[in-house]
TrEMBL record, chain B:
It comes from Hibiscus syriacus (Rose of Sharon). InterPro entries: ATG101 (IPR012445). PANTHER family: AUTOPHAGY-RELATED PROTEIN 101. GO terms for cellular component: Atg1/ULK1 kinase complex; phagophore assembly site. Residues 127-148 are annotated as: Disordered. Residues 134-148 have a biased composition (Basic and acidic residues). Belongs to the ATG101 family. Keywords: Autophagy. The keyword ATP-binding does not apply. GO terms for biological process: autophagosome assembly. This is Autophagy-related protein 101. It comes from the Eukaryota.
Amino acid sequence: MEMDREPGKLEQIVSQFRSKILHVILESRVPSLHHQQQESLSLSRVRKTDKWFNLVLGDRPPALENLNFSLRNLLDPMVIDIILVRHGPCSSSVDNLYAPSAAAAGPSTETVIERWVVQYDCPRVFATPSGAEAAVSYKKIYKKCILLLRSLYSQMRLLPAYRIFRQLSLLSQTYNFDLIYKVSSFSHPFSREEEDGMKEYNFTPVEAPPGCLCVSVTYRTTLSDFNLEPLVSLPPKIITDYVGSPTTDPMRSFPSSERGAHAISFPSRGLRSPSSIPFQRPHSWSSGFHRGIPPTKTQSLAGSPPAYRTSCKPYDISSPPADLFGNRIQNHRVSTLQQATAYDEYKLSPPFSPSASPSTPTYLTGANPLLTRHCSETAPVTIPLPLTGRSTRYLSPNSSDPSRHSLPPLSPRSSKHDASSQESPSGIRSYRKIEALRAGESPSGLSNLYSAPKVVRDSKDDSGRFSGLLSSSGSPRIGFSRSSSRLSFQDDMDDCEFSCPFDVDDVDVSDSSRTVKTQRAKKLQNLLHSQIW
Amino acid sequence: MNCEVCQLKELKVEHFEIREVLRCILHTIVFHRALGLLRPKDVDLELFEITYVQCGDVELEKKIDEKIDHFVSWVEKHPNKKSQICLSFYEVKSKQPSWFANKTERLYWEQWYVNLNVIQHPKRHSSKSHHTKVVVDPRESANEERSSHRVMVEASLREVLFQIIKFVNEKKDHLPPISEGVIYFPYEITIPSSSDSAFGMDMIKRMLHSGHPTMLS
């Protein structure tokens, strides 16, 4: 009876082990996931998932659940790449304020700085466990899994990438780099050059008959050769001298108004040609994935369910070996490029909107048609009415609030509330907590987190590369990028009305017309006078 | 049951670095031997760019700090000396009570030796090179030396932490079963006492309890 129950338990342990490892890795490499975890950790209750391996990490982000679902074949390796994205030099720091950083910056480079591989290594020939082996209870396996996870948790904080993660977690500074991740069941091998600067560490495998659980990491030993530096950010400037301001002389003429210039607050400059804006910010749920995947290959995968799904069956340790393991033997190593059955970028549905999945990453399908259409327009920014369907979910829910967009996108509030990141308000608290932790204080309460540097961070994130699944929706950055993307929608919506203090056109017209009328009246008067006299 | 022993790499630290270094090492070891349900707590060192993990248990933190205080007091009385702090994990076994011995005994199954060499910061004096006319600013050279020492200690501490992780990964079979409701295994921290002989006696006592000769590497 015990043996009959053990395979099911073993499968459960292996499955939860993979999930836990993924959670540990991503929560210490993806700031937004880390912030969410900080928030959920603040609650005193322990969730069911926390109890696994006696390691309380907080809520598992929905994205992780989706990843787990798509990689649920326990015999497939799970490869987690942590990718450093470096943005090229930008023209001016002012551009960073009002334009997506990717637009302002040069081409960005991506480097895999860490590769974690979790796999269940099976023997070629399945051997019926002997009496002694059969006696290895799942409890021992579970205990060893706990030990491995403890050491993994510590190691995550000792590797060089952790420093970068901590830097990015700080909201008081913006950097010319991002951290994204990619999870798949195969990976491209490193080149010789890449391997030179990397080191491998293998955790001691956990015996889980008939195979063993193996966790290894290949990581760059130093990141000092990357030019990772903070971006200079301008302090926020409140413009009080605008048309319509109560303190401004209504009769004062503004040089820009005479020429009918446009609102300066919003990034009309952000609307550039697709070639200059690499609005390659993929859909938020897939932005974590490596662009290097050839589109043809990916699209072919998108069209059909991955093969492993069709052959997926519950992991059954008691099944005859040939049936279960026969076609797995050659695929249990990740160093070689596997048959293209296991990686499916598109099957990982977004955490907030399954219906949004059809909005495939634009970098794969070409330039964003909306941007193409409106690249040359410099009309004043309009805020659309709340959209229906997936667009609403794709955009910030605050898009309908014109007051939020009457000013430059300072506040992450305008960008934060995404369905995929229900914890975003608390995310702010967690941001503060992290800062407080850095200062050696214990986190407490809310505080004003909205500061101008976040504008820079937000704009930078329009590259959309900041750690795929949830961070794209959880962090204010992605919210801003959504705002930017919304601009393209806004320009298309001629029926939207918008009153903005910075919207000079309407006020200009009225002012200039009033001026003209006054002048005409005066002329008429003069004429009349001259005629009389 | 085997008693596994791990001799950690020696660290050369200055007096003011002792607390941080010891806290980091001891908590890291206990975290890896705390197999009960816990919420890990990340702690950033102030002197070094290292983050280590604690169990989040207030009682444990208090006890470790107490021991560190005792150790610091000992160091102040014995400056410029190499010292060893021993963190041991044991199982409580009941035995036949006798006239000489207690009803329970401690069976040590793992011992960690933290080796510290507490150094004094050498006094600085203005050094005028006889070969050049340039006079070296003593403050500048002191800062440089301090900074290089800091870098060295940080690198060594990181190595020690990796050493701990390697050891806990390689040695797993000797751990006793996890008890329900217990977060971490019973432990004991031994610091050098006022007399070295007493410390030695503690070591011999432990050897007798563990039932195996201490494997000093």
